[in-house]
Amino acid sequence: DTGVSQDPRHKITKRGQNVTFRCDPISEHNRLYWYRQTLGQGPEFLTYFQNEAQLEKSRLLSDRFSAERPKGSFSTLEIQRTEQGDSAMYLCASSLGTGDMNTEAFFGQGTRLTVV
Amino acid sequence: AQKITQTQPGMFVQEKEAVTLDCTYDTSDPSYGLFWYKQPSSGEMIFLIYQGSYDQQNATEGRYSLNFQKARKSANLVISASQLGDSAMYFCAMREGATGRRALTFGSGTRLQVQP
């Protein structure tokens, strides 16, 4: 297994356009997370899936953001009507849902979004 | 209040020396886990070490150890025998148990530069 894969790695878009990112988690992982990281900051939690169910969404996730994980495997994150403030690195992570506190999350290399 | 505080934006260390990266946390949850991740310039977050709130001993993983002082709510990362490849951003993160959240809350990070 090659780990968590994200596509694209970089995206430049004009303000007002819609963008969609894809995340392929490690195959046996049932939990999937999206985070956003702005320059000089740590990642901030956006949303979390267990299998296909979206169990938690951050207040950071405005109504312009939507995430899906239709078959409990890959996930997509869509941003509608992008704004310059959406420019950030979008990180995906996955983990095994063992219920243990120490279950580590494995991260992808991220999608860097630039809104111009 | 910040959940995770990393007060050192940047640190320098000579190759082969030890370095301590500071992390303090804030939670009222008796069950929590503390994680350290490394983020090289490629962007991927790499898990380094974990400490559970009920663990009696400080965690160690190779050259990494965690100086866990529960009463002071600190979880400092110690890297022994620094290598040039250790140059990266380092993030402390916490998962709180009783709330059922599976997401990690990250600090703002410390940039470590190892000098030859």
Commentary on this structure:
The complex is a heterodimer of chains A (116) and B (116). With 116 residues, chain A is mainly β. In chain A, 0% of the residues lie in helices and 48% in strands. Chain A contains no helices and eleven strands. Chain A has strands spanning 5-7, 10-13, 19-24, 31-37, 44-50, 53-57, 65-68, 75-79, 88-95, 106-107, 111-115. In chain A, the strands form two sheets. In chain A, strands 2, 4, 5, 6, 9, 10 and 11 form a seven-stranded mixed β-sheet that branches. Chain A has a four-stranded antiparallel β-sheet with strand order 1-3-8-7, with no helix packed on it. In chain A, strand 5 and strand 6 form a beta hairpin. Chain A is globular. With 116 residues, chain B is mostly beta strands. Helices cover 0% and strands 50% of the residues of chain B. Chain B contains no helices and twelve strands. The chains are: A mainly beta (116), B mainly beta (116). The interface between A and B is medium-sized, with 27 and 27 residues.
Q: How many helical elements of chain B?
A: 0
Counting copies of identical and different chains, the oligomeric state is: heterodimer
The structural class of chain B is mainly beta
CA gyration radius of chain A, whole angstroms: 14 Å
Q: How many DSSP-defined strands of chain B? A: 12
Q: What is the typical, i.e. mean, pLDDT of chain A?
A: 92
The description of the largest β-sheet of chain B is: 6 strands, mixed
Helix content of chain B: under 10%
- End-to-end C-alpha gap of chain A: 36 Å
Our Rg estimate of chain B from Cα atoms comes to 14 Å
Order of helices and strands of chain A: EEEEEEEEEEE
Low-confidence stretches of chain B: none
Pairing-aware structural class of the strands and helices of chain A?
mainly beta
Q: CA-to-CA gap between the ends of chain B?
A: 38 Å
Overall pLDDT of chain B, averaged? Answer: 93
What is the share of helical residues of chain A? under 10%
Shape of chain A: globular
Largest sheet of chain A: 7 strands, mixed
Strand percentage of chain A lies at over 45%
Number of strands of chain A: 11
